[in-house]
Amino acid sequence: MEVRLLELLVCPLCKGRLEHLRPPQQEAQELVCHADRLAFPVRDGIPVMLESEARVLDPAA
Ligand SMILES: [Zn+2]
Known about the structure:
Blueprint: H1 2-8, E1 19-21, E2 30-33, E3 38-43, E4 46-47, E5 55-56
Antiparallel strand pairs: 1-2, 2-3, 3-4, 3-5
The structure holds zinc ion.
Zinc ion binds at residues 11, 13-14, 16, 33, 35-36.
């Protein structure tokens, strides 16, 4: 159920598809928009789709 919800989410800025990153650290889940180079946090399983909360990805990474 939760995974299905995450798959339906799109970037609030460009409406593009988001990549759901699920590293071993469960608290570090993120939804990444590669077009905008932003990573939206997932807190307690709830995606925070706010640009102000998003992490800017390092273009060198
Ligand atoms: Zn985007």
